[in-house]
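Task card 7
Instruction: Convert sequence to structure tokens.
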Amino acid sequence: MRITFRFRWIPFFAAAATILVGIALGQWQMGRAAEKQAIENRLSARESAPELRLDAAAADVDALEYRQIRAHGEFVRDWVVYLENRPYQGVPGFYVLMPFKLTGSDRHVLVERGWVARDLADRTRLPAIATPKGAIEITGRVRRNPGKLLQLGQAQAPRPGAIVQNLDLAEFAQAAGLSLHPFVIEQSSDAQDGLVRDWPRPSSGVDKHYGYAFQWYALAATAFIFFVVTGIRRGTN
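Output:
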């Protein structure tokens, strides 16, 4: 029995396109996994570092990111902002953000105070949240920004009580007229305000990216095998 291979252009181009897409997307997922692993390595190293005290001096976000920090001051109660589409354990909700004025200066830092569930019947109805009065001390982790989601349409300008998808720190500082540190603090200290402070780990999802990469590589391999097998022809001499 003689085995031959019949080359056909249309299956070839279809298989080649699938292989290229599969490899490209697999490589992208591997890159994302490497980024998350790098974050985890830096996060683990900085979690064990001594806690810092934040003051009014200019701070380098690259040096402070993921460090544990302590700040003394008071919340600017009339400039709360809500980040929407932040679910917690499958429940829709908001991240509550509020500026924190540092004691003895005009310098502020934006604090992610915690998570609160949204009103499922009326998304514009905001929950009543207790805010400590006067000077307090908070602790938390430094983050470069509050996190970014895919933005559809024009972003809403920052204003007191706004519900926004994403928040740019420079735009917020300009709108509020505040001198703001170029990072946020994910608050971890309890303030008896009913907010949830179970923050997602920024490095989570490494295994998920490896799994997705395997699926894309498998698709590329399947396309190649399918092209070869369907082109094989058997005959007799």
